[in-house]
């Protein structure tokens, strides 16, 4: 079920450049369990899109099947959404993007959806450098089907019923890095300060941006022996950098004279500002990022933050050389060669 | 022996990968250019190199374009590997043309056929130093010999060579020389012409010779398809390859050099179909092409397309199944898998082209139908139509024709609406109004999903809402008939007792089958099905005839099943004539089956 929220607006809510309040970015009332990490992700998306003044109707919300894939219902009611089938959101988004390069694509998936049934499609959407934000709400379990172990669960971590996971985890950030994602970040649904700027940066990034967001399942994976519980994640988190995002339109007044500060200019002129907690961390080297993820994992830590960015990547349409006008908007005159050309074609088959 | 003009079968036996295909094709094309009806079939292995392959050409003044069936009148035996079998496949009194560079094994010889030996390999060794040339020109040389044996006009062959090597003029002279070597040898060593030969006619005006996959690709191009997701599989691969090639020529924006199309070779058929649905959701025309195994993988998405009501065009170039089946052999065995693809109560619109011209026109139309009905449409082609060259009418396009985009609301139309409901049946035809993403800042957004929803696209598990939606989809399927091509019905004298129902590539064999039946005193009416769901004419036709034979190329009589299920037809009234060895069905087979069946029935009646 989804419930409509009341349309009541507080008259003094702050408005963005489009004259919209954050209420204009909300979705239906959530039907997820109270305290589910996925709702916090929705809230972060709402905040990020509101602050970036993204026109909600220009957003396409794409998802697969799972609790996490339901989440797009709970943000931006004015955007069209597509709940596809389990694990196949990447291909549908690819087709949608091929047809209309002008919309803003936000893909929302679960770790079951992406790392199991959809792993093949995930790998290929990364390779194809689709211009989109791909978010995985990673809770280490299948929520919607009630608690089976996901392929992202850590080796040896315990399920609610006490069974130890026999198999190594699939690290989706490592995969995304190896397959050529041009922006990769990891965050925690409970850390809005880090998550919101990351989402803003990803939305401004013209290329494939991947965010793995640890998002505890309060119902099936928040117990004492889980490595995806709120408590566990809070204790083991290690940030590669504190991220801030400066939109293109905001004037940057001062440049901090701080060794640990880096400004990354994105395609649209906006600035991604990273204050390092780790001196050696290099956000521009995908191989080092993989190594860093593995090193921290070996120490039992979860490395979060912006892990990698290529500020000027190529995306699918640039590589393929497709028309600047969305293919879906080309007219019959643009597309149909007409009877005279056909007469020549006929002649070549005589 | 009487001279037989324009009525014979020549079969070429070659080795895969030796370049014989273009020479054999030139042979068929020459006869076509002489104005004589001709049909050509590739019979090839699922292998790239080294295996036996055959090419069968039927010449027929009567215009029979199906396989004749049975043995060949002339066999061009160029493959030692298959020689024993090839000798057996010559009609008694017929001819075997072979490479006599090595003596033949006496044991396999037949004394009821004529042997025409030519030391082609030896001649090539003398003529050419390069081994590749020796191989390639062998093929051209035997075509030259056949020109003398069958009286093919030499100028026609020379013109074909010039056309083929336009832009590579250097190659013209040596090719014509090779033709001459063969021609001269045949004239001086054999009694030319043979008792059967060709004679110029004027039957091919307004006709072309094209394969169905090329025509399908052109249909997609003319139909306005811009997005393709696909995964290679025989025999559908050339649909997308040809589409890509024509797009490179005809769909590049002259000002910017940008492409007005996008093709992605997907990771598998699941993804290919997903891309199609994503693209049509955004308002582009999109298609994919595949064959049986790919259809199996696409079924989940076909169900989504049906339930979420998204247009899509799927080209299914059928091959012999089940499973990997016989990848390079033809069949019509995916009907049920396509009509009801996916779980739950799901039904899909099917189109049945009979030849390349229809591959073109029905593919172009499929995009309109898919848009108008907001549902997947499957074009049921097959290897026989798709990969073989066929004599067919020229492709036609009406320049004043406008694409039918169906019920899509613009921003202005949305403004007029009090409340938009994606699944409201406003017009009572089961077809609702779509809104494309990004169209309107405030209105019209909804969730597209494969789960149950109410008329306003809000998720619901309420039984009555679900039932209403499912009933509307059934209503839409009934409405579909309005948009689909009607069956083609040919009834002679109204007294014909038997009716023939067929579809797709079987069509080529029907006229001959009817003539053969008439020779035996049996008149028949015929009905060619061009679409599923069925028009009422199909039911009427069945009711008008005491006995109806459903002729198809699969084991289980899938069209018959579909007819009995969908029309609630008494199965007793429909008899199957089934051919499914992977080769195209022949007129002889159809007639013989029906005659035998009727004879058996007459016997039982007498006995009773
Ligand atoms: C083809 C198919 N197989 C299985 C399912 C059942 N199913 C629905 S959601 C789901 C797993 C969801 O897990 P995840 O993606 O991690 O999302 P979460 O619910 O944990 O947020 C499964 C197996 C399905 N819908 N379709
Ligand atoms: S089951 Fe878990 S993942 Fe699903 S809504 Fe509840 S808390 Fe969230």
UniProtKB/TrEMBL annotation, chain A:
Q: Cite the CDD domains for this sequence.
A: TPP_OGFOR (cd03375)
Pfam families from the UniProt entry: TPP_enzyme_C
Say yes or no: keyword NAD present: no
Entry keyword set: Oxidoreductase
> Oxidoreductase among the record's keywords?
yes
Q: Which residues form the Thiamine pyrophosphate enzyme TPP-binding domain?
A: 65-213
InterPro entries per the record?
A: 2-oxoacid:Fd_oxidoreductase (IPR051457), THDP-binding (IPR029061), TPP_enzyme_TPP-bd (IPR011766)
Q: Please give the name of this protein.
A: 2-oxoacid:ferredoxin oxidoreductase subunit beta
**UniProt organism field:** Shewanella sedimentimangrovi
């Amino acid at each position: 079920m989804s419930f409509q929220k009341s349309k009541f607006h507080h008259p003094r809510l702050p408005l963005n450049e489009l004259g919209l309040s954050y209420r204009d970015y909300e979705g239906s009332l959530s039907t997820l369990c109270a305290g589910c990490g996925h709702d916090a992700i929705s809230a972060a998306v709402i905040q990020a899109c509101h602050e970036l003044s993204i026109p909600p109707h220009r957003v396409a919300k794409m998802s697969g099947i799972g609790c996490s894939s339901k989440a797009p219902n709970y943000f931006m009611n004015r955007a069209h959404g597509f709940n596809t089938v389990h694990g196949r959101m990447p291909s549908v988004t690819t087709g949608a993007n091929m047809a209309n390069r002008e919309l803003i694509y936000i893909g929302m998936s679960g770790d079951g959806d992406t790392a199991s049934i959809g792993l093949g499609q995930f790998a290929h959407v990364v390779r194809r450098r689709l211009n989109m934000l791909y978010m995985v709400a990673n809770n280490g379990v299948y929520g919607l089907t009630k608690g089976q172990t996901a392929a992202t669960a850590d080796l040896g971590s315990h399920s609610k019923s006490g069974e130890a996971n026999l198999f190594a985890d699939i690290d989706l950030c490592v995969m995304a890095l190896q397959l050529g994602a041009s922006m990769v970040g990891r965050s925690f649904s409970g850390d809005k300060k880090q998550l919101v700027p990351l989402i803003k940066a990803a939305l401004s990034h013209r290329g494939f941006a991947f965010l793995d967001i640890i998002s505890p399942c309060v119902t099936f994976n928040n117990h004492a022996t889980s490595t995806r519980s709120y408590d566990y994640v809070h204790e083991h988190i290690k940030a590669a950098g504190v991220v801030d995002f400066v939109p293109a339109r905001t004037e940057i007044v001062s440049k901090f004279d701080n060794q640990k500060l880096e400004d990354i200019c994105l395609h649209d002129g906006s600035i991604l500002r990273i204050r390092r907690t780790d001196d050696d961390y290099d956000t521009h080297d995908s191989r080092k990022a993989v190594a860093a993820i593995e090193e921290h994992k070996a120490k039992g830590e979860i490395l979060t933050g912006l892990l990698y960015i290529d500020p000027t990547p190529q995306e699918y349409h640039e590589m393929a050389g497709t028309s600047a006008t969305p293919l879906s908007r080309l007219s019959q005159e643009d597309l149909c060669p007409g009877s005279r050309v056909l007469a020549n074609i006929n002649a070549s088959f005589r | 022996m009487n001279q037989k003009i324009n009525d014979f079968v020549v079969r070429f036996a070659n080795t895969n990968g030796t370049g014989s295909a273009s020479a054999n094709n030139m042979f068929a094309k020459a006869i076509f250019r002489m104005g004589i009806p001709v049909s050509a079939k590739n019979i090839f292995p699922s292998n790239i190199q080294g295996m036996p392959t055959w090419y069968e050409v039927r010449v027929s003044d009567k215009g029979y374009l199906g396989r004749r069936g049975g043995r060949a009148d002339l066999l061009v035996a160029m493959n030692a590997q298959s020689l024993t079998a090839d000798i057996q496949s010559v009609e008694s009194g017929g001819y075997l043309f072979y490479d006599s560079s090595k003596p033949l094994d006496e044991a396999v010889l037949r004394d009821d056929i004529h042997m025409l030996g030519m030391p082609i390999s030896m001649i090539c060794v003398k003529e050419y130093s390069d081994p590749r040339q020796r191989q390639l020109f062998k093929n051209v040389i035997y075509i030259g010999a056949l020109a003398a044996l069958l009286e093919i006009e030499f100028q026609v062959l020379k013109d074909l060579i010039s056309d083929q090597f336009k832009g590579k003029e250097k190659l013209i002279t040596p090719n014509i020389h090779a033709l001459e070597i063969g021609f001269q040898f045949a004239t001086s060593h054999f009694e030319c012409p043979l008792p059967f030969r060709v004679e110029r006619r004027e039957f091919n005006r307004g006709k072309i010779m094209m394969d169905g996959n090329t025509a399908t690709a052109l249909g997609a191009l003319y139909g306005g398809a811009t997005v393709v997701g696909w995964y290679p599989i025989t025999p559908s691969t050339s649909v997308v390859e040809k589409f890509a090639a024509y797009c490179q020529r005809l769909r590049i924006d002259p000002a910017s050099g940008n492409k007005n199309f996008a093709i992605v070779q997907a990771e598998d058929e699941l993804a290919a179909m997903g891309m199609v649905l994503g693209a049509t959701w955004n308002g582009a025309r999109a298609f994919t092409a595949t064959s049986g195994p790919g259809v199996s993988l696409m079924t989940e998405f076909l169900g989504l397309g049906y339930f979420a009501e998204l247009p899509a065009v799927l080209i299914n170039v059928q091959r012999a199944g089940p499973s990997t089946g016989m990848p390079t052999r033809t069949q019509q065995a995916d009907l049920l898998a396509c009509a009801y693809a996916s779980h739950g109560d799901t039904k899909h619109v099917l189109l049945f082209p009979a030849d390349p011209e229809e591959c073109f026109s029905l593919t172009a139309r499929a995009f309109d139908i898919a848009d108008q009905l907001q549902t997947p449409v499957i074009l049921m082609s097959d290897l026989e139509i798709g990969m073989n060259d066929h004599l067919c009418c020229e492709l036609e396009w009406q320049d004043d024709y406008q694409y039918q985009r169906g019920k899509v609301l613009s921003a202005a139309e949305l403004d007029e609406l009090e409340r938009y409901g994606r699944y409201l049946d406003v017009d009572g035809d089961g077809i609702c109004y779509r809104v494309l993403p990004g169209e309107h800042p405030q209105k019209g957004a909804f969730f597209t999903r494969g789960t149950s929803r109410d008329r306003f696209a809000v998720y619901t598990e309420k039984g009555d809402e679900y039932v209403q939606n499912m009933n509307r989809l059934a209503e839409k399927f009934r409405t579909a008939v309005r948009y689909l091509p009607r069956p083609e019905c040919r009834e002679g004298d109204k007294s014909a007792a038997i009716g023939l129902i067929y579809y797709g590539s079987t069509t080529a064999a029907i006229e001959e089958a009817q003539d053969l039946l008439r020779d035996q005193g049996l008149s028949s009416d015929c009905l060619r099905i061009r679409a599923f769901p069925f028009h009422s004419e199909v039911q009427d036709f069945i009711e008008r005839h005491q006995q109806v034979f459903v002729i198809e190329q699969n084991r289980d009589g899938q069209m018959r099943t579909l007819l009995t299920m969908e029309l609630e037809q008494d199965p007793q009234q429909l008899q199957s004539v089934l051919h499914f060895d992977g080769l195209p069905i022949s007129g002889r087979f159809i007639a013989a089956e029906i005659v035998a069946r009727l004879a058996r029935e007459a016997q039982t009646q007498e006995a009773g």
